[in-house]
Amino acid sequence: MKRITIDPITRLEGHGKITIFLNDDDSVANVYFQVPELRGFEKFSEGRPAEDMPQITQRICGVCPEAHHMAATKALDDLFHVEPTSTARKLRELLYSAFYVTDHTTHFYILAAPDFVMGPDAPPAERNILGVIAKVGLELGGAVINTRKQNHWIIQTVGGRPIHPCFGLPGGVSRAINEEERAQIEEIAKQSVEFGKLSLKVFDDVVLKNKEYLDMVLSDTYTQKSYNMGLVDENNKVNFYDGKVRVVGPDGKEFCKYAPREYLEHIAERVEPWTYLKFPYLKKVGWKGFVDGKDSGVYRATPLSRLNAADGMATPLAQEAYDKMYSTLGGKPANFTLATHWARLVELLYAAERLLELSKDPEITSTDIRNIPTATPDEGVAIVEAPRGTLTHHYITDERGVIKKCNLIVGTTNNYAPLFMSIKKAAEDFIKPGVEITEGLLNRVEMAWRPYDPCLSCATHALPGQLPLEVTIYDAQGKEVKKLSQGI
Amino acid sequence: MKTLVLGWGNPILSDDGVGIKVAQEVKEKLSYPQITVAETSTAGLSLLDSIVGYDKVIIIDAVQTKEGNAGQIYRMELQNFSSTKHFSSPHQINLATALELGKMLNLAMPQEITIFAVEAKEITTFSEKCTPEVEQAIPKLVKMVMEELVG
Predict the structure, then answer these.
(1) Which of A285, A353, B92, B139 has minimal CB crowding within 10 Å?
(2) Chain B within 8 Å of A252 (Cβ-Cβ)?
(3) pTM for this structure?
(4) Region class of A228: left (phi > 0), else alpha (psi between -120 and 50), else beta
(5) Domains of chain A (ranges, CATH numbers)
(6) ipTM of the complex
């Protein structure tokens, strides 16, 4: 086979690139996936006051500012050796729950639903939110917009500013809520719970009752038996805001459980010559390549992983939905990548229920919202679950709290290796010797990465639903045989 | 006519912040109650939330095209969106779908939308500064936006 060098230095022009190499018999020899990487954050944050990090890091991504804000806020608690007040903790988790409702709603209806409602072979022009609404009805479309709008109001009210909260402080939060706001939040939470139930019903009607889709969910093409990671509370139930990181093996057994400060004992990063991206893996298992299984350190951190890594959900309706999901999928852990969309809806319901619980908590309108730190800062680590995966913020400062070093592992980074593996498998299964390669390849590949809802720099500019992507296929002699693209 | 000037971009990603910088300068020069100047860093559907209820919207943003030179300025209108193929910015697909969605759901969508886009050189490295080529385009762009509003 002619040798072609994949050079990550070539500018990726703001879109993703997949390069496929074929064998002599036109079966797939290898697949490489590259995306532009955001660089220089560590250098950018050096010399800045750590207290600015909730404001700065939330600018990294336009889709999930709240996740970075929350991770940075908790990292400040750790850095300044201060615990937030009980009310502050609850307000933080309340805002975070509202955020999850908006984010999961957006992802499911804009990104995931089109594949299932319209079908994976529908023309791209129809396979989007417009097609979904045309098919399932304007009322549902209105409910999507309304749920997002109402929960964004909660984030703005509690967080102090639209989109980019100015809320998190070491030891607490910047503002309390009053009874009028609380009552409104409770009302929105009740409606969000109904919306969560409705969304699971939509999934049931459109996906589970359709044998073709259910077969696709359970198919080997979209199966990956990797380790699963997620934050759990003291009862091993899913928690987005706080807890310990639990990793469960492909066999369902707990592999490790660690506190944020221990993360470097468990996670290492693999460097590959053909990309700037680094691939996290479980240190104690080791890097064995882009393969799944118990002996490979590759792990996933997605909504499905969180449900796999936990023993259940902390709220009743979500627990019911969790039980139904696993009984349909044949037990735990579920290794079906497409089931991530289902897990996302279980989480949506949990977030809404949790929002309701917190809105009714007797302490939630208290004005005791801050413990002022008194200790000298040095080093802080915090972990939250971003919608896209486990998010870690790690700061090292001088004695004034000025950043000397920082390390972030964002949600999607955990999933680079499994994402790459899923894309590769989809390409391998779609490209067969003697069969013409059609545009349908693009969608099969997209269906493989979409469950991960990856936060890729090129994707942050596009309305979810269309990753700008270029696929180039080379034969065994190194001759380009096909080029497919979308959104470019 | 209720007008919105929306600076769009990421203020910590080098040239991706140009839209926000321009909006900030426009805001300093303007004081008409009918004109709102705002900034946003959000992606996708949240754009819809920002523009509902306005009659006219001017969006200022960075763009990367195959052939463009850093600092080059483009002006696009609503009718360019579905038919323009030579611009490689995913924003126009983004905006076009968001607008259609808004119409479908009977939201109050703007009648006039204009995008001013600046060819960016660097949008993947963290920095609060634009590259010199893009920095130089800012005063010209501010002038163009003011003319669009007043002229």
Answers:
(1) B139
(2) no
(3) 0.92
(4) beta
(5) 16-36+415-486 (no CATH), 83-222+336-372 (1.10.645.10), 224-332 (no CATH)
(6) 0.87
